[in-house]
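Submission sheet (multi-component)
Chains listed below:
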Amino acid sequence: MKPAIDTDLITLHAPRDFRGEAATTFLAEAEASVTPQLRVLELDFSDTAVTDGGGIGALLELHHWCVAHAPQVSLRLLDPLPEIRHLLELARLHHLYVIIGSRDSFDPQS
Amino acid sequence: MRTILICPDRTDALAALATSGPLVCAPLLGASPLEFWLEHLALQGSTQVHLLVSDRPEAVGAIAGEGTRWGLRVEVDALGEEFTPAKATARYGPDSDVRRLDHLPGLPDFPLFTSYAAWFAALIAWLPRARTPARIGMHEIAPDVWAGLHTHVAADVTFHGPVWIGAHARIGAGAVIGPNAVIEDRAWIDPGAVVGHSVVGPNTFVGGLCELNDSLAAGATLVNWRDGSRVEVTDPFLLCSLGPPPAPETARRPWKWKLPWISPASRPALGTIPAIDRPPSIRLP
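Outcome: structure written.
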């Protein structure tokens, strides 16, 4: 998938089936897309219908990698389905990622 | 006095609650709406109850039985469709007390079966009243925190009442429970988990460090009661079912009910028991 590149923001579209190998591949692409100028990495989950512990693990690993190698980058998760969002919240990923739903009001300063 | 209780049919709005049985039998604070109603009617002086059931009447019959548990005479009438109160009155006579089991006793402003949010609101409203006379062993372990028999709660669990912990439930170290949390019978909360504004169903495991908010968790099924979204969790380390409840004591340990049948006169004296029945280490000379 080709990332949409802004000056300091990159949006990556997560696959529909965010599990196992697909999640691992997405993780590698996300890490490769991080540059020293990057400030915000957005993961668009609007198409993602399925995830599991493997997908949650990939997101967790991406957060750890960013903390270690690109601490200036803030991570956002865009528009997940309510079911996916609930699963992410069960695993407490909403403490690591800013989860923005389509109906949420978003403060760009945050 | 004869009471007619109309049990509502299943509804898509609460599909997750009706998978294992009819809605009136769904687990609710260690019992079910049906049991709370029968107990309430018994306390009110009813003697005869007709249950009009259109959804899985055998499950309703398994809970209600013949009503002897409450001192009632209960009959389950299996119907093809849900009766309206007017239709029930026409069938059973105008002297019958016809009620629809769509709320808990004394809480008509909290309908049970319109949505998950309504179910949760009714459950929390019912929580202070759920310590009914028939319930044994429920005790307050902290302000607004009620625990049933044989619960195991680690010493450093943080509670924010109101909280209900069912019998045989286990809560691990460092967990944060409440406010408005219901841990049903035999549920298992692993260390570090957070449960707030949620219901953990019977025999349900919540994994370590997981966070349940605004949720109804039953086995691997996770429902957000605010927006009604539902997901089946495929990773048992996050959320899973612990299997069916154990068999009743009498079924597992037949000696428990066999022993009283041996009259004292027919029991053998200690000296007459053959030595071969004893372990060799304590064999008497």
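Remark: Chain A touches chain B through 14 residues (CB under 8 Å).
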